[in-house]
Specification:
468 residues, alpha/beta, Rossmann fold, Isoleucyl-tRNA Synthetase, Domain 1, 3 domains, four-stranded parallel sheet, four-stranded antiparallel sheet, 15 helices, 15 strands, 14% strand, binds adenosine monophosphate, binds zinc ion
């Protein structure tokens, strides 16, 4: 398996630190607002990487943080007159809902910056002890970039050139030794959340949290560190400096970065105001269409969001789902029979598309080509599965299609279909609750269904339901 490593700017053969295991860290969002579909790109891309690694039999430890202490969160809290914790708790819950709707698997651990302050204090102290950090008069602790000689190795920037270009950017009032020194700890301002520390009452800088969480949950050296390409510099460069200065070991062996999701060929971002939230797109489309749209491009290429491309994605997904529905119908219609010799041969032939899918994924997760292989598989089954097929052939074909779609995180069921199933499960649960005389739960479910616009009718054949 080959992975493009930002560190070497090359595709490299993937060799995990420990056989059969992958330790992976993906920088997560700062939680002060609903996430936009640009933020969803790394979530979808690296969830797909994880799914493929798991399909290959690796046990993946997947860690992705929520940055829950930050200027933007504090600003939003002040605007609303609530605490910063209230803002971050709210938007973590919203983000988790969006991730579930995008069929992004829960991380093995979703650490929160505010829960890891002790680890940050320890790492900063280690950096101080080793001479990699210093305290300015106002209590701010900075990382001494000049002392970390490989600084710039990820972004392939030369510190001296950078410094020449940055000499004028010294912010007044800052007491840094050097313009590229970055904050590890900063003093509190009135009304802000703060923690005690040996340097001042204050809070951590942004970069230190990822270094600490990656080490705590995965170890000193990890296999894959990932995020959007805007994080290469300075965020990931600074993470490397902190972790490697503190532990004297390589921080991550493979650095993966996704390209931007653009709109009118400009990066979608909160600050430019040119964004759509996942929630907004979810009102217009089944979010599986968004997932399919994202995976139709290579993760390192820029991707321009447009209605035309979303329509194309919607049509493509529909083609796959129609084939799956057809196979599901055949499953119900065909007689229980083993494959004929001819079908066994056909099924073996269809493996060529699985191989094509796998070799696309093995080549730096080329999901665009993997999706093409799925289309070819669909075409093959459309041609070869029919009313005269054995049930075994139909079932195996369905399972093969499902396996590939599962790797991409694409659900074969349509949204309405899965909603119907959810409603039916609730109705069944309500019946069971009534039987057990748990009327409180039964009423609660009735209210939930009512809110969903579902009308219930007791008939002799059982409970019937319809949409209001
Ligand atoms: P933020 O909350 O801005 O720190 O972003 C969280 C993650 O989303 C990071 O990995 C960013 O690199 C990524 N990201 C933000 N905007 C975009 C975009 N327009 N396209 C792709 N990735 C993005
Ligand atoms: Zn990070």
């Amino acid at each position: 398996m080959k992975i493009y490593n930002t560190l070497s700017r090359q595709k490299e053969e993937f060799v995990p630190l420990e056989e059969g295991k992958v330790k992976m860290y993906v920088c997560g969002p700062t939680v002060y607002n609903l996430i936009h579909i640009g933020n969803a790109r790394p979530m979808l891309v690296f969830d797909t990487v994880r799914r493929y690694l798991e399909y290959k039999g690796f046990e993946v430890a997947y860690v992705s943080n929520f940055t829950d202490v930050d200027d933007k969160i504090i600003k939003k809290a002040v605007e609303e007159g609530v605490s910063a914790a209230e803002i971050s708790t709210r938007y973590i819950a919203e983000c988790k809902k969006d991730m579930a709707d995008l069929n992004v698997k829960e991380a093995t651990v979703h650490p929160l910056a505010t829960q890891e302050i002790d680890g940050m204090l320890k790492m900063i102290q280690t950096l101080m002890d080793r001479g990699y950090a210093y305290r300015a008069e106002d209590g701010t602790v900075y990382f001494r970039t000049k002392k970390f000689l490989p600084y710039g190795k990820l972004s392939h920037k030369n510190l001296e050139e950078l410094q020449a270009g940055h000499r004028e950017i010294q912010v007044t009032g800052e007491q840094k030794e050097d313009s590229f020194d970055f904050v590890l700890w900063k003093p509190k301002k009135e009304g802000e959340p703060y923690w005690e520390s040996p340097w001042c009452e204050g809070r951590p800088g942004w970069h230190i949290e990822c270094s600490v969480m990656a080490q705590k949950y995965l170890g000193d050296t990890i296999d894959i560190h990932a995020g959007g390409e805007d994080l290469i510099f300075p965020h990931h460069e600074n993470e490397i400096a902190q972790s490697e200065a503190a532990h004297e070991k390589p921080f991550a062996n493979y650095w993966m970065h996704n390209g931007f999701l653009n709109i009118d060929h400009k990066k979608m971002s909160k600050s430019l105001g040119n964004f759509f939230t996942v929630r907004e797109i979810g009102e217009e489309y089944d979010l599986q269409v968004l997932r399919f749209f994202m995976l139709s491009a290579h993760y390192r290429s820029p991707l321009n969001f447009s209605r035309e491309l979303m329509e194309a994605a919607s049509n493509g997904l529909e083609r796959i789902r129609t084939a799956a529905d057809h196979l599901a119908d055949l499953k119900a219609q065909t007689r229980e029979e083993a494959m004929t010799a001819e079908e066994t041969e056909l099924f073996a032939q269809s493996h060529a598309f699985v191989e094509k899918f796998e070799s696309a994924m093995e080549d730096d997760f080329n999901t665009a080509d993997a999706v093409s292989a799925v289309f070819e598989l669909v075409r093959f089954f459309n041609t070869h599965a029919g009313e005269s097929s054995s049930r075994d052939f139909v079932e195996c074909s369905y399972a093969r299609l499902q396996t590939l779609c599962d790797i991409l995180g694409i659900e074969l069921q349509r949204q309405a279909q899965s909603l119907d199933e959810e409603i039916e499960a609730l109705i069944e649960e309500r019946q069971a609750a009534r039987k057990q005389k748990n009327f409180a739960r039964a009423d609660e479910i009735r209210d939930t269904l009512q809110k969903m616009g579902i009308l219930l009718e007791d008939t002799r054949e059982g409970v019937k339901w319809k949409r209001a």
